[in-house]
Amino acid sequence: MKDLMGQAILDYFHNKKTEDLLTETSISEIDELPVDYLFRDFDNMNLIEQKALELSKGKILDIGSGAGSHSLYLQNEKKLEVLALDISPKSIEVCQLRGVENAICTDILNFAGEKYDTILMLMNGTGIFQSLEKIDLYLEKLYSLLNENGQILIDSTDILYMYDRDEEGGVLVPADHYYGEVDYFVHYKLDTEKPIKWLYLDFETLKRAVENNGFDIKKIMQQDDSYLAKLTKKDLN
After folding, report:
1. N or C: which end of the chain has fewer CB within 10 A?
2. Cβ(106)–Cβ(180) under 8 Å?
3. In whole angstroms, what is the distance from residue 78 CA to residue 52 CA?
4. Region of poorest pLDDT, from 107-111, 162-166, 192-196
5. Residue 79's CB: how many other CB atoms inside 10 A?
6. Helices and strands: H and E segment counts in the chain
7. For residue 168, pLDDT beyond 80
8. What residues have CB less than 8 Å from 111, skipping those under 6 apart?
9. Whether the Cβ atoms of residue 146 and residue 176 lie closer than 8 Å to each other
10. What is the pLDDT of residues 10-48, one digit of tens each?
């Protein structure tokens, strides 16, 4: 992994010349992502992020922490114990430089830590699942990291709106895979990251998956085509 997003985050932190990150998927054109967006404070976060941070409690695992903005808010403003986790070494370096007290660079499937009261997965948190084929593997791991009375706060977007429609109004989705499975590309300073598999989930598909893996689920809020969901362990008594 070239870690281009991490490099952009590191460059920005050290006031080096940065360019916008360019992102695209296998179903969308290139879009600009200003690096300073990854350093936004609470007031500049969207309503889903703000709600998730407001609901966060206890010992927290922030998966896909990026530059650490969510972790810093929880640590400094809510005075909570937070572990920031990301697969980007340079992003985790910036988390530490910005003052995140606990940060680790690893894949969540390789992580063997304590149990947590809140597991936070934001900015399309379902993306790390990669595909429907792998979702059970990730949910099993998350279940093992969650305290009995804990919660997972996760967001995603139903991207059905991105597909064309036929003359009768039917949506032209792929026949060979779930429409939320895409390849995700990052470009920075004329370099391109190897594409990763990324998963957007409509709420009903996420609901079926988590209920098959020992969770109850509740939709907390909806914002346009995106939503925030809370997962808790099923009461087996």
Report:
1. C
2. no
3. 13
4. 162-166
5. 7
6. 6, 12
7. no
8. 85, 104, 141, 145
9. no
10. 999 999 888 999 999 999 999 999 999 999 999 999 999
Domain count for the chain: 1
**For residue 237, what pLDDT is reported?**
59
Q: State the pTM of this model.
A: 0.95
Nearest to 7 by CA among 197, 191, 198: 191
What does the chain come to in residues?
Answer: 237
Retrieve residue 222's tokens. 């909806």
> What pLDDT is attached to residue 89?
98
Distances (CA, A) of 94 to 14, 73, 78, 89, 173: 9, 15, 21, 9, 39
Residue 10 lies in a domain: no
Q: What residue numbers bound the domain in which 222 lies?
A: 46-178+205-233
- Helix (H) / strand (E) element for 47: namely helix 47-55
